[in-house]
Write a structure and sequence with these properties.
With 210 residues, the protein is an alpha/beta fold. It folds into 2 domains: 117 residues, Periplasmic binding protein-like II (D-Maltodextrin-Binding Protein, domain 2, 3-Layer(aba) Sandwich), CATH 3.40.190.10; 88 residues, 3-Layer(aba) Sandwich (D-Maltodextrin-Binding Protein, domain 2). A 6-stranded mixed sheet has the order 2-3-1-4-11-5. Strand 2 and strand 3 form a beta hairpin. The protein is elongated. The protein binds phosphoribosyl ATP and zinc ion (ZN). Zinc ion (ZN) binds next to loops. Its EC number is 2.4.2.17. Its cofactor is Mg(2+).
Length: 210
């Protein structure tokens, strides 16, 4: 049977736990920071190291068979991938936040306001549900500084501890979406024996952690 390819984050918040999960599954591989692909010695799997934003697209197109990526990225890219397993790490919440002294009190108060985010699609869908028309400003990083610079009235960004919001004079206002790392797969993997074995090992690792 043909080796499967799994895409994981090359560096960043999900890299270490993704690597650790695969190692805990008994997979033997070198984790060279410089190589973009590595072959597992004792299991029919190759590992691709990618930017997290690219993972859903690679899986959707079948360049990778599997991926480990945050649900926030899957939703934002609106990729057609299959959810195989929730992995319980990388937990965070996409939240709307406003300056501590903001006059915004209700979701409706966001009408006509400027909101900075790296998640324009998720935010647009959320606002549409409340029939709110806001000016969504796409910013790719350091979203939290934009209200202080006068660039926006609110932000929509990932929060885990809340420390970054606080240190930028912001307070959480509404939860938009919870997220965690997910094992996803391309379409057409049903009945694949390598995948079945991998999922069984992942389930044992997750169970042992409970
Ligand atoms: O280079 P690459 O594109 O692969 O990585 P990246 O920089 O885009 O993403 P990275 O590594 O920061 O995050 C990868 C994934 O981890 C995200 O897509 C989420 O699914 C998940 N995750 C979990 C988080 C956080 N927690 C998190 N706290 N992603 C980002 N943050 C950032 C957030 O954007 C904010 O700036 O951390 C800051 C807030 O943290 P707190 O603890 O101060 O609230
Ligand atoms: Zn990214």
């Amino acid at each position: 049977m043909k080796n499967l390819k799994i895409a994981i984050q090359k560096s960043g918040r999900l890299n270490e736990k993704s690597v650790q999960l695969l190692k805990n599954c008994g997979l033997d591989f070198e984790n060279y920071k410089s190589s973009l692909i590595t072959t597992v010695g004792n299991f029919p799997l190759e590992i691709l190291f990618l930017r997290d934003d690219d993972i859903p697209g690679y899986v959707e197109q079948g360049i990778a068979d599997l991926g480990i990526v945050g649900e926030n990225i899957i939703d934002e890219t609106e990729s057609k991938v299959e959810y195989i397993k929730r992995l319980g790490f990388g937990k965070c919440t996409l939240k709307l936040a406003i300056p501590k002294d903001s006059s915004i009190q209700d979701i409706k108060d966001l009408n006509g306001k400027a909101i900075a985010t790296s998640y324009p699609n998720i935010l647009k869908n959320f606002l549409d549900d409340y029939q709110i028309n806001a000016d969504i400003r796409l910013i790719s990083g350091s979203v939290e500084i934009s209200p202080g610079l006068g660039l926006s009235d609110a932000i929509c960004d990932i929060v885990s501890t809340g420390g970054t919001l606080k240190s930028n004079g912001l307070k959480p206002f509404a939860d938009v979406k919870n997220s965690e790392a997910i094992l996803v797969g391309r379409k057409g993997l049903e009945g694949n024996e390598i995948l079945a074995e991998l999922v069984q090992r992942i389930e044992s690792v997750l169970l042992a952690k409970e």
